[in-house]
User: Fold this.
Amino acid sequence: MKIIRLGTLLAVASGFALALLLLPAEQPASFTLPEISNGDDASDPVMEAAFVSGELTREVHSATAVELNNGDIRVFWYGGKREGSKDTAIYSRVFSNSAAGWSEIHEVMSRRQVTQDTRRYIRKLGNPVAVVKDDELWLFFVTVSVGGWAGSSINLSVSTDNGNSWGPVKRLISTPFMNISTLVRNAPLLTEQGDVMLPAYHEFIGKFSELLRIDNSGTVIDKYRISHGREAIQPALLATDPGNAIAFMRNSSEKHPGKLWFSHTDGSLADWTPLAPMPLPNPDSAATVVQLDAADELLLVFNNHPSERDDITMAWRPAEDADWQLIHQFENLAEGEKIHNPFSYPFLLKTSRGDFHLFYTWKRKYIKHVHFNRAALQKMRADAGMGS
Amino acid sequence: MISSDPLFTGLSVVLLCLAWASLLLPLARLPLALRPVLIVGITLLLMLPLAGDPAWYAVRGTFGDSSISALLFYIAFILQQNFSWQLCRPVELVLLRRLLAVTALLLYPFALGLTGFDSYSLGYANPWLLAILFIMALLFWWRTYYFLAISLAASVAAWSLQMLESGNLWDYLLDPVFVVLLLLTCMKPAVASHQTR
Assistant:
């Protein structure tokens, strides 16, 4: 009996000594701030629009894009017979700045591959988001094993060749409740410590936004709650300085329908201000935002309606204390036309050269791409009576 | 990371299913010689392909991974239910049930967004949580609750070695499926009969 007693004590001491020895030192996260590029205002306005998703699948949704290290733009989206059908896969293609233009579309992630890599039954695939981290391209995407989107989990695959091939899929563990109901929609940020800050949201019982901090091995090492309750999802995150960020969120609330939510950190990533409704409307739909010439000069693309996704509109805010100005409408449903959610899930990418790539779901059939430069943006502002 | 090893993940799903089978099926009424056969049968069933993949992929996809504490308890529970080998004493079982019920109440509602506070985030490299668990482990040892003390130490050691996919200590200590099974054991007459032995 004494041997058991002594052995147990030794086991307890060893287990905790090991934990103490391997306990990682706390490193407060500080954002890597993107370079603010003014672009080339002097060139002629360029604005080109095209459908980029082809005819491979009957329905497509939730496009996202990333600028690769070589300056090319890689876009991802998911498609299938319909949203949530078993044949959904994630597709991608590359927009080259050279004369090559758009590459062929290829499937980068299938249900079959995720099932085999994660050793879990996967029923459907959903929203992808990507980030370039050093020489690697990290692709986060949603999968569901059981039920609807509230049963989602996040997965990660890494490419070392700009997305031509992908490493094994890894499951991210982000909640203690059977790891269900964490989703992604908007682009991650990077930290000086080499971690990825992934804006995520939860949909089962609670509907709220949070930030996942992910280390080099693709493991969630911390999380910060942006909101709680059942009000705000799909945070679009921007760093305002190394220790602070702002988030714009889709309004999924029943109490205050129709307005985009906004929150900002109060000196620490763990400390977010209460949700504040913006003056801009929101029909419970995703929005996207980028910074222009200063951290507080913003371009936001959204559905400019409190209840319908009938348009895709861009708003500009010149400074933190300035009002939002509507400067361009990319889509507007023709009068008399009746389609459920015709335009949704915009994703705006600002490149290191200072031009813009906007992607959004067009009548669920196509992903539409609009490429415009700084001169075109200048013209939009002038046309809207804003000047520069 | 052991969790990426198919043997470990497959085995943990087998243990989960055997524990539930031991709880829900009257295995204890079978002749002793038949019980190992049934256990092997359930294990083989989980290995059979279902829609092209082993059936245990479906179980894992639905319920997620078991915590380390759960796996240790499942081993003890399967042995206790089917072979009357007692690794976890009745008094430890009662204490474990109460502790996990309270922990689950403090963890899951907050993780599901009840307030701005997320108790789950305390599981990321929090020295205070470790200190509390260490004191608990010492108390268990002092009260001769050796199964609980070892379970706690093993969970903490597994977390520090990142043996599961999760980087959060809570995921090594408990999981919802474990909590439900543990709470249901108090309604299992077979457990009560073993408790009196």
Q: What stands out?
A: The domain at 46-383 of chain A is CATH 2.120.10.10 (Neuraminidase).
